[in-house]
Design goal:
Strand content: 15-25%
Oligomer: single chain
Shape: globular
Distance between the termini: 53 Å
Largest sheet: 6 strands, mixed
Helix content: 40-55%
Number of strands: 16
Strand order of the largest sheet: 11-12-16-15-13-14
Length: 576
């Protein structure tokens, strides 16, 4: 049974209906299924690129023929003695695997899965040490086959696996045909390569690749019933088919809500997820942010925000409720109804079963492309993602020459905290006034995003969440957290390509225990810092209101100092 979707639109119903009527007049879904790329752009080169990214419309039926072999492969891997798998992949090549792990768990006689989409030495070291080496398996996943993080991680773990005698037996590759990763997997004698040939209908962009080998191979390894998952997806494709009424098309409804209401100033989609579906909310966050955040437009997806009273939200929100029928949260139910009563548009989605995941992936993919058409943008490209990559590459080249990075003069250096960026105040004096100056640059309906490249430990993750909550509670702005380098492949597109509607606090630190990358002149810590600095430079070039804070010395102590300064700054602002 598919999920149950309800719209509570109130006075916004007319705008959404107008959006549906526009879609009907366009014959949007008929043309979508005909792969009519003029729905999004009139530029011939962009149309050609889109045409090569629409395979997700048919790939579930193609992959349905692979489920038996996927199941057999998963059994063989477990039978070979492997108990834990690392998914080495960024963005769309890895995020859906995390959704599957957190949604379904791991069944008996299958592999525990960790998604390693980071260059953080602490996280890499922890992931590699969770089981005996002979039981550790690596899934090297990259559509382009040349993703810098994946290349570094695969090189590192291949070198680690040499201690067990046959490193290639520990690895598989998932990639597209003709990529460097496909060649590498052959050269390094990987156990197997799962290669998508675009000529067979697998022409799918990264963030739309959940139901391809990129999502399904890791899902099979943890014991997900991929046949059932794809059945849900195929049923949703039929429900949203070209001959179905738009009034009965759940993807059209979401697309019309997002695409029509963003034009009225409701440019923030707040996801209210109960714990079983929170990871799917993170997948939707990536899909919507990277697809819509460009050409000065964008829908900012917000997940994990502290809840407020309905009247405390501005007129910039659309709310999406995600709940699982067998684990309903009555308090969230009441909150959602109160939000609707207060005049906010609400999309309610109640999954009847965890395997509704397949259908929801299809629904949200269709909805996002629909919203993109209504917004007049191309949802299939990511033009600003490359900017940070190029700057990172240049910084690494400079580091190879000079053994150091270029650094602008600090606005403030106070013990173990240094601040970089631009403020109205020339000499802020101390950390709290510096943060206060930065926060006061916020305009009505702006959001505040904390972009953390700090090590992924429970205490530091908790500290970042506490910073976010204090800012949200004290000054009322929408808030986001981006974990680097993961966010560079998702919300990073919105931050640089979307509207100038955000304040950004980028956090970095000195690495205490770094890790070498075999064959490279730089370490993982250097790579991570180059990624952070590259994104900082890219946002500065875009004129974004970004502050870079670098922590040194005792990291826990420096983080506590930063938290105290944020509390002091927001308290002072709230009293004004």
């Amino acid at each position: 049974m598919a999920s149950i979707q309800t719209l509570l639109l109130g006075r916004h119903a007319a705008a959404v209906q107008a959006g549906l009527e526009h879609l009907h007049a366009q014959r949007f879904f008929q043309r979508l299924w005909d792969k009519d790329t003029s729905l999004w752009t009139s530029d011939p080169s962009a149309q050609a690129s889109i045409r090569n990214r629409l395979g997700w419309l048919t790939i579930p039926k193609v992959m349905a023929g692979e489920t038996a072999s996927l199941r057999q492969f998963a059994q063989a891997v477990h039978g070979a003695g492997f108990t834990h798998a690392l998914l080495l992949g960024m963005g769309g090549s890895g995020l859906f695997s995390e959704v599957c792990r957190k949604t379904f768990g791991v069944t008996a006689k299958h592999l525990e899965l960790t998604v390693l989409d980071t260059t953080d030495p602490t996280a890499i070291r922890a992931a590699g040490g969770q089981c005996p080496l002979k039981q550790l398996f690596a899934i090297v996943s990259s559509k382009s086959g040349a993703t810098s993080e994946v290349s570094a991680l695969s090189t590192y773990f291949y070198d680690v696996f040499k201690a067990d005698g046959d490193p290639g037996a520990h690895c598989i590759a998932i990639t597209d045909a003709g990529t460097p990763l496909e060649a590498q997997a052959t050269s390094w004698k990987f156990r197997r390569s799962f290669v998508h040939d675009p000529n067979s209908g697998a022409d799918v962009g990264g963030r739309f690749s959940a139901l391809t080998y990129f999502g399904l191979v890791p899902a099979a390894l943890i014991g997900v019933d991929t046949e059932r998952l794809l059945k849900s997806a195929i049923e949703m494709l039929e429900q949203c088919g070209p001959n179905r009424s738009l009034q009965d098309n759940p993807a059209a409804a979401i697309g019309a809500v997002l695409g029509a209401l963003v034009k009225t100033g409701r440019d923030k989609m707040t996801l209210l997820c109960t714990p079983p579906l929170e990871s799917f909310g993170a997948w939707v966050e990536q899909l919507v942010a990277e697809s819509t955040g460009k050409s000065g437009q964008g829908i900012a997806p917000l997940i994990g925000e502290p809840l407020r009273e309905p009247g405390a939200y501005g007129s910039d929100r659309v709310f999406v409720e995600l709940q699982l029928a067998c684990a309903m949260d009555p308090a969230l139910d009441r909150m959602v109804l109160a939000l609707a009563d207060a005049g906010h548009p609400v999309i309610r989605i109640h999954w009847q079963d965890r395997y509704d995941l397949g259908g929801e992936v299809v629904k949200w993919s269709l909805a996002t492309t629909t919203a993109g058409s209504l917004m007049g943008i191309n949802p299939f490209d990511e033009p600003n993602v490359q900017e940070s990559k190029d700057r990172t590459k240049a910084l690494l080249a400079q580091y190879a020459r000079d053994r150091d990075f270029p650094q602008e003069p600090a606005l403030l250096t106070n013990g173990d905290v240094s601040v970089y960026g631009s403020l109205k105040t020339k000499a802020p004096g101390s950390l709290a006034p510096c943060l206060s100056d930065w926060l006061q640059q916020a305009r009505s309906n702006d959001y505040v995003a904390i972009l953390s490249f700090l090590p992924r430990t429970a205490s530091l993750d908790g500290a970042v969440r506490a910073m976010r909550n204090n800012i949200a509670t004290a000054i009322g702005h929408a808030t986001m957290i981006g974990v680097g380098p993961r966010y560079l492949h998702s919300t990073g597109q919105l931050f640089k390509g979307g509207p100038d509607a955000g304040l950004f606090l980028l956090l970095t630190n000195d690495e205490v225990q770094d890790l070498s990358i075999p064959g490279e002149s730089f370490t993982f810590g250097v790579l991570k810092y180059a990624q952070a600095l590259g994104d900082f430079q890219a946002m500065q070039q875009k004129g974004r209101r970004v502050l870079h804070i670098h922590l040194t010395g005792d990291l826990e102590r420096a983080t506590q100092r930063l938290m105290s300064a944020i509390n002091e700054a927001v308290t002072a602002i709230a009293k004004r």
